[in-house]
Design goal:
Order of helices and strands of chain A: EEEHEEHEHHHEHEHEEHEHEEHEHH
Oligomer: heterodimer
Structural class of chain B: mainly alpha
Low-confidence stretches of chain A: 316-331
CATH topology of the largest domain in chain A: Rossmann fold
Shape of chain B: elongated
Number of strands of chain B: 0
Strand content of chain A: 25-35%
Strand order of the largest sheet of chain A: 6-7-8-3-9-10
Order of helices and strands of chain B: HHHHHHHHHHH
Helix content of chain B: over 70%
Distance between the termini of chain A: 34 Å
Largest sheet of chain A: 6 strands, mixed
CATH superfamily of the largest domain in chain A: P-loop containing nucleotide triphosphate hydrolases
Radius of gyration of chain A: 23 Å
Largest interface: A-B, 71 and 56 residues
Number of domains of chain B: 1
CATH class of the largest domain in chain A: Alpha Beta
Number of helices of chain A: 12
Low-confidence stretches of chain B: 1-9
Chain lengths: 331, 280
């Protein structure tokens, strides 16, 4: 179809303005073919708007982008023929059954009636939805809905898939299943642009990550690079008895420097790159009669990366985030 | 279509099967426009199948109208209920079907709040297909409404001169006009924010237009200014043409004007609706 460019997505200076909000304010992206690229940011950072522009659902107000070699404004049909979208709201029809949803999409993508039915049955089986095939989607659980949503996106396997927060609101087991499906897609050669506000998700799945905040890419790299750019690793300690945390904080502070108290009342962490000094500090805690549940020395988590980059935690919803609402309105 | 009996249904995604499912398709040629539109029509039919109550408005309301107008106003307006039934039945057919078109706009507005529209918009299909398809589906609802009225009318003693053929022709004409008119309401459905607003605005337009037509009364009994308006109201012309077809006296001019009006409405509002729909 197109010459195999090493880049599946090339975006330069994308801008989208809603009213007086610059929801996306000059985003550059370069996504390698065959990779999983994570776009990471809090609610309202501009992730969904970026995806919607790349998927040709809305027109950019500035900048340009090519998806699989096709311009997203001038060659919309070519883009649409090669991508599929799993939106933040589940992009399936709640008033139909799971099977009907998949047949509907198969027909719309050009499969004949018989082929569409066979394909629907195959996908329902593979995604663990065979039993629920005849039930209306509005009665599905969140996890089932997500799986159907992804199945709907691969009725005809796309070369590029946009996944907008695929595990938001799912329980850990359903989340793991969705992750498994995503890994299977990548293994079969589909490029994935994954928007998420879960740092762990990006860490688990993505080869490259762009951190986005207030419509701008504020950092970019592999998960490892991002962590390294924030500096050293950290020693994480969790105590058996939260009552002992002040005492532990004092000891660790004296040995290693500024202590960060985690939301978990029994946990604390401290910046430290040196395994030897960390081991000594842990031994010191132990000698002082503080019972340790577990400890680890690792690179900083993406949560810490986000905090270091933006000055506010990734799950900070307290600020006004207008574009999340505006994006849903039809006009 | 059942799943293969050899494989027990599971409730978990099976990664190996997912991988197999991923590489087992080749991209088929694009769906043809007509086929895409019909698929959307099928979607509309499925919704009716799952929630048959949706047909209440196109069955109960027309029955109510026929009974109410015939027996309440028949004596006063036409001297007898039988005479009025002959006059009003084609009119009620027109009114009921046209009122139903407002719901096309309401349904579209409701649809837009759902995530599935994003998927439709991101598909490589003929752009107006989702809209044309859902209006084709709605045309089936119009047919149901029309059929209910005619069957009830016959049961009450209505005997059209032109027989079955005339009645079917009238029904077809009304449905064609309704298809054209419904594009006005789908445009409204995309411009207004809530389903309720669409409903209110829609009826605020269609209600007076219907009553200021010859659906209920002979325009000759009206004040001159009103009569002039009623005579050029496309709904009057549609009602005339329908009566004519049922009685075997239809004028080609009336039928031509009805088709032309439907064509103009479609030509103006279908592209407008499509553009608004794409814009999201």
């Amino acid at each position: 179809m197109t010459s195999q460019s090493p880049l599946a997505i090339e975006a330069t200076g994308l801008v989208k303005i809603f009213g007086d909000t610059r929801a996306v304010d000059g985003v550059d992206l370069a996504v390698r073919t065959g990779s999983v690229y994570g776009v990471l940011g809090p609610n309202g950072a501009g992730k969904t708007t970026t995806i919607r522009m790349l998927a040709t659902l809305i027109r950019p107000d500035g900048g340009s982008a090519r998806v699989l070699g096709h311009d997203i404004v001038r060659e919309q049909d070519a883009v649409r023929s090669a991508v599929s979208l799993t939106g933040q709201l589940a992009s399936v029809d709640e008033d139909l059954t799971g099977r009907e949803n998949l047949i509907l999409l198969g027909r719309l993508l050009g499969l004949r009636r018989g082929a569409a039915k066979t394909r629907a049955a195959e996908l329902l089986q593979a995604f663990g939805l065979a039993e629920a095939a005849g039930k209306l989607v509005k009665n599905y659980s969140g996890g089932m809905r997500r799986r159907l949503d992804i199945a709907a996106s691969i009725v005809v396997t796309p070369r590029l898939m946009f996944l907008d927060e695929p595990t938001t609101g799912l329980d850990p087991r359903s989340r793991n299943q969705v992750w498994g499906i995503i890994r299977a897609l990548v293994a079969e050669g589909t490029t994935i642009l994954l928007c998420t506000q879960y740092l762990e998700e990006a860490d688990q799945l993505a080869d490259g990550i762009a951190v986005i905040d207030h419509g701008k890419v504020i950092a970019e790299g592999t998960p490892g690079q991002l962590k390294a750019s924030v500096g050293t690793g950290a020693l994480h300690v969790r105590l058996l008895d939260p009552e002992q945390r002040p005492q532990a904080a004092e000891l660790l502070g004296a040995a290693l420097g500024v202590v960060h108290l985690e939301p978990d009342l029994a946990a604390l962490s401290v910046q430290c790159a040196d395994a030897g000094r960390a081991a000594e500090a842990v031994a010191e805690l132990s000698r002082s009669g503080i019972s340790i549940a577990d400890f680890s020395l690792g690179q900083p988590s993406l949560d810490e990366v986000f905090l270091a980059l933006t000055g506010h935690p990734a799950d900070d919803d307290s600020e006004q985030r207008p574009d999340a609402i505006q994006e849903e309105q039809p006009a | 279509m059942s799943t293969p009996a050899t494989e027990a249904p599971t409730t978990e995604a099976d990664e190996a099967a997912v991988r197999k499912a991923i590489y087992s398709t080749a991209r088929p040629p694009k769906a043809r426009p007509v086929s895409a539109a019909l698929t959307f029509g099928w979607r509309g039919m499925l919704k009716v199948k799952h929630v048959p109550e949706q047909l209440l408005d196109v069955t109960i309301t027309p029955v109510m109208f026929v009974l109410m107008f015939t027996y309440l106003f028949g004596g006063a307006v036409a001297g007898s209920t039988g005479a009025y039934l002959d006059y009003i039945l084609p009119g009620i057919l027109v009114m009921s079907v046209l009122f139903t078109t407002v719901y096309s706009g309401v349904a579209l507005n409701t649809d837009l709040t759902k995530g599935v529209v994003d998927r439709f918009r991101s598909l490589p299909i003929w752009r107006p297909a989702p809209l044309v398809g859902s209006l084709l589906g709605d045309s089936v609802r119009y047919l149901v409404a029309g059929t209910v009225i005619i069957v009830l009318g016959v049961a009450l003693g209505y005997r059209p001169e032109a027989g079955v053929v005339g009645v079917l022709a009238a029904l077809a004409l009304v449905v064609v006009f309704a298809f054209g008119l419904s594009w006005v309401f789908t445009t409204l459905g995309l411009l207004l924010r809530t389903p309720n607003a669409v409903m209110n605005a829609g009826f605020m337009g269609i209600f007076p237009l219907t009553f200021l037509s010859n659906v209920f009364v002979d325009p000759a009994t009206l004040p001159a200014a009103l009569e002039a308006f009623v005579n050029v109201n496309p709904i009057s012309i549609l009602a005339n043409a329908s009566r004519g077809l049922m009685e075997g006296t239809a004028s080609a001019a009336d039928i031509g004007i009805v088709f032309a009006t439907a064509a103009v409405l479609t030509a103006v509002f279908a592209p407008l609706t499509t553009r608004l729909y794409r814009r999201g």
